[in-house]
Fold these 2 entries.
Entry 1:
Amino acid sequence: MTERPAVTALIDTVAWVLIERGRVLCARPTGKDVFYVPGGKREGAETDLETLTREIEEELTVAVLPESVAPVGTYEAVHEPGAVCVRMSCYTADYRGTLTPSSEIAEIAWFGYHDRVRVPPVDQLLFDDLAAAGLLH
């Protein structure tokens, strides 16, 4: 049995799960090759809602409607190298505005389950749950 290295750090993130026609919105940050479910790291003592609304406005230039926010689940996965654990608290929410990548986002795309290999391990866990629920095709 292969021993897993000790976790060296925890990255606490919040993500927005926007699903349309069996696909989930993903974003590729400028300078990166990997797509992620939109969202980001908590700053200081921010709540999940504060982190979600700030990050989505910064990345996609839309306003999350706070009254529509609903939890999807929380996922954790170790990203190697470095044995960094990423915790991703996921929420659905309605929004106001037009989805437009900001300067920190190079590209947005709608991913189906077959695109699972193009996202990090923690996002893959979300993809698995969405597919099992019949929400991701």
Entry 2:
Amino acid sequence: MKRKLTDISSALFDPELGCTVFTVERITCTRSREGTTSRSMTEQARGCIHPGTPEMLKLLPEEDRQETFIVIFTDYALSTGDPGEDGASFDAPDRILWNGQTWRVVKVRDWQGFGYVQAWAVRIREDKENRE
């Protein structure tokens, strides 16, 4: 007998458990002789967003270890990016715009059998000195 998986959507979208609306920016880049061009698409998604724990921080790659990172539980299929098969185009990691800040998805755990994904995202710091 096949066991039916538990649907957690009622908890996933419960405002009392931290459900919120956020924006997902997906960037596709294409390389050519003239240079690299990018195309951006944004969509609204919803889910629970919580701060990451110190134990989770240890599991992040060294270059992504920051004290400020979030964990997102959502039914939206978030992505850490795709290098592309042809080398001419690739997808950058998804960016999450939430709470006035921008976050880059660094890890996704696919729990679609239960109706959600768990994603970890680190804050993108804007360095004003590098832009001037």
